[in-house]
Design brief:
Length: 404
């Protein structure tokens, strides 16, 4: 039987561990991509926020099923963790936002579950990214702290993972898509360098004999004179503050500017293509990355928002719900307790569309909601229905049957 001590040694850490700590992922762009510099690419940063913010924002509740009904369990220990403070120093919003950020960049998020004597969860203490390694030995799952070698069982670790090849450890999207991210980073660097070096970046200076420049007799003297000329030409005309400054050269010297790539249509198309690529990487819609070129009208954007919730948010909330059900509920509660993320606020339509839908659900057709339920959806307090105006033909199904 293979032991954990044979797999991990603090004195001689595995190459995989060192690779994780070092972070950068090599690619063909010439810029090593890491989880840190990937976020400096605006499209990646926006895609991560577009997913992490809703996960942290939506309300989360523990319910109990009783006699075909469900009741919110406001006093449940898990409810306190997911809605208020997972630990004494972190608010629930910050905790979920940071956790989702880790999963999207690293592929995994790990937190230690602290329990009381009754096995109720009372704290969730996150681990730094890249520290925990899940290991499967003889069909048993363990979590190992790479820093200390300490081993945890599955019921001690809260684990959210991204797409996984082995079903045990998630894959990093930054690593998976390092080529595309690297291409985006190098494009941004090129553009920034272009403007930083001024309008005359990339050119050739021709020096005729009539300039009367003495390049000396030795290679050293020639190099020194060439550096002097280069400095004379570049210093006054490079940098953002010197854009469009008129260049004056001594007689016998001529400057010829090279082709400016930023004017090429292919470069501009490449920059837009990187936004589309990032949208694919993170399953987000282009409207969420503020790329609205293909958005024809507000209705089109609304449908993109619904698709975004279905394609990008719903899979993650399902992932979270199942882990909460598995790790934060006691065994005697798992049959009738469950966690639910409320996504209604993410797909809420405009007022006219909502009210028309409520009207149908209340009775223009087959009514399946009560006035109290509709008011709750609009975040309004309950009210006595007798105080509400109703059309004369608006009554309950039972009353309609009596009138037949």
């Amino acid at each position: 039987m293979t032991s954990l001590t044979q797999i991990f040694s603090i004195d001689n850490p595995p190459q995989e561990f060192m690779k994780v700590l070092q972070g950068p992922f090599s690619n063909d762009s010439g810029i090593n991509v890491s989880t840190d510099n990937a976020l400096t690419l605006s499209a990646v940063g926006r895609a991560v926020r577009a997913i992490a913010n809703p996960i942290a924002l939506v309300s989360k509740h523990i319910y109990r099923k009783t006699d075909g009904k469900r009741e919110k369990q406001s006093g449940h220990p898990a409810q306190q963790l997911i809605s208020r403070k997972p630990n004494p120093y972190t608010k629930a919003y910050d905790w979920f936002n940071n956790a989702q950020l880790s999963v999207l960049l690293w592929g995994n998020f790990y937190a230690r579950i602290v329990r009381d004597r009754d096995y109720n969860p009372i704290k969730l203490i996150r681990f730094p990214d890249g520290v925990i390694k899940p290991v499967l030995i003889d069909d048993e799952l363990f979590y190992v702290d790479r820093r200390t070698g300490k081993t945890y069982t599955p019921d001690e670790i809260f684990h959210i993972k991204d797409w996984s090849k082995d079903g045990i450890e998630g894959m990093s999207r930054v690593s998976q898509y390092r080529q595309g991210i690297g291409l985006g980073l190098v494009s941004e660097k090129f553009q920034a360098s272009f403007y930083g070096n001024g309008a005359h970046q990339g050119g050739i200076v021709y020096v005729d004999e009539e300039a009367g420049i003495d390049f000396g007799e030795t290679p050293e003297e020639e190099e020194s004179e060439m550096n002097r000329i280069r400095k004379m030409v570049t210093d006054p005309y490079t940098g953002a503050d010197n854009f469009h400054r008129v260049m004056l050269l001594p007689p016998g010297m001529k400057f010829e500017r090279l082709t400016m790539p930023l004017k090429d249509a292919e470069f501009l198309i490449s920059r837009k293509f990187q936004v589309i690529e990032v949208a694919r990487m993170f399953d987000t819609s282009l409207s969420k990355l503020f790329e609205l070129e293909r958005a024809t009208n507000s209705n089109n954007i609304e449908h993109q928002g619904i698709e975004f919730v279905q394609e990008a948010i719903l899979p993650w909330t399902t992932n979270w719900e199942q882990e909460i059900n598995d790790k934060l509920l006691r065994e005697d509660q798992k049959d009738d307790h469950y966690c639910k993320f409320n996504l209604d606020s993410l797909v809420r339509a405009d007022m006219k569309t909502r009210y028309e839908a409520y009207s149908m659900s209340l009775g223009q057709g087959v009514g399946f909601q009560s006035t109290e339920e509709v008011r709750a959806l609009e975040d309004r307090d309950p009210i006595d229905e007798d105080n509400l105006f109703k059309p004369m033909n608006y009554n309950r199904q039972s009353e309609r049957a009596d009138n037949v």
